[in-house]
Amino acid sequence: AETLPLHGLHVLVTAGPTQEPLDPVRYLTNHSTGKMGYAIAEQARDMGADVTLVSGPVTLSAPRGIDTVHVTTAQQMFNAVQEHFTQADLTIMAAAVGDFRPIEQSSEKIKKNGRINIDLQLTSNPDILAWAGEHKTADQTLCGFAMETQDLESNAAKKLTSKHCSMLVANNLNTPGAGFAVDTNVVTVLKPGATPDEPIIEHWNKMSKQELAERILTELAALR
Ligand code: C5P
């Protein structure tokens, strides 16, 4: 039989949002549905890889044949990634990780107590992709995502370099057919060029998240 393109490879994928609790009933989160990350995980499985999916809270069901680790907070996602990263040949971080979490989590529901305004103190979460970029070995391939609302190429180029990615997939939230909760995506793909300020930039046409998953994985496999 013909060997599948990712046969024998371990693929690690992060997907979905994180939830950062304020108190037992409230949390900070974002609009990520996990569709892109789940499509990548399923496609990697279908291309023959051994897949670990670290997923934030989503309504999608755990895909068959994939080791799915469910997490809630960015810190939990970081712990799960740290546990699985060394075994991963390809890592794709499609999760929308909350950049900040409340400095303290109240053990009781926060009461209004007649207040008009309240101060909410936030502290930064670990950058999981940046950690992976710092710790990857020469034979590990790392792909990040970026969602931007302005200056897509320059912001994405900075992330590609600063997080030491092999490839970065950037989408503009304001482009029709791109972003959260839709089944298609329109992306700009960046790879390191001759110098850090001259990345290789490709504009890919609008396609389904399934098809995009296949194209991303094929590109990543070709980088190895
Ligand atoms: O810097 P920004 O959040 O735009 O970077 C997006 C990329 O970094 C995505 O691949 C996302 O999964 C990853 N990321 C992460 N941990 C964070 C923030 C972002 O892994 N705390």
UniProtKB/TrEMBL annotation:
GO terms for molecular function: phosphopantothenate--cysteine ligase activity; phosphopantothenoylcysteine decarboxylase activity. Its cofactor is Mg(2+); FMN. The keyword Magnesium applies. CTP binds at D99, K109, P126, D127, I128, L129, F145, K159, K163. Keywords: Decarboxylase, Flavoprotein, FMN, Ligase, Lyase, Magnesium, Metal-binding, Multifunctional enzyme. Binds 1 FMN per subunit. The keyword Ligase applies. Transmembrane segments: none annotated. It comes from the Bacteria. It catalyses: N-[(R)-4-phosphopantothenoyl]-L-cysteine + H(+) = (R)-4'-phosphopantetheine + CO2; (R)-4'-phosphopantothenate + L-cysteine + CTP = N-[(R)-4-phosphopantothenoyl]-L-cysteine + CMP + diphosphate + H(+). Residues 6-222 form the DNA/pantothenate metabolism flavoprotein C-terminal domain. Its EC number is 4.1.1.36, 6.3.2.5. Residues 11-224 are annotated as: Phosphopantothenate--cysteine ligase. Pathway: Cofactor biosynthesis; coenzyme A biosynthesis; CoA from (R)-pantothenate: step 2/5; Cofactor biosynthesis; coenzyme A biosynthesis; CoA from (R)-pantothenate: step 3/5. Catalyzes two steps in the biosynthesis of coenzyme A. In the first step cysteine is conjugated to 4'-phosphopantothenate to form 4-phosphopantothenoylcysteine, in the latter compound is decarboxylated to form 4'-phosphopantotheine. Catalyzes two sequential steps in the biosynthesis of coenzyme A. In the first step cysteine is conjugated to 4'-phosphopantothenate to form 4-phosphopantothenoylcysteine. In the second step the latter compound is decarboxylated to form 4'-phosphopantotheine. In the N-terminal section; belongs to the HFCD (homo-oligomeric flavin containing Cys decarboxylase) superfamily. In the C-terminal section; belongs to the PPC synthetase family. This is Coenzyme A biosynthesis bifunctional protein CoaBC. It comes from Bifidobacterium hominis. The lineage of its organism: Bacteria, Bacillati, Actinomycetota, Actinomycetes, Bifidobacteriales. The chain holds residues 194 to 417 of 427 of the full protein.
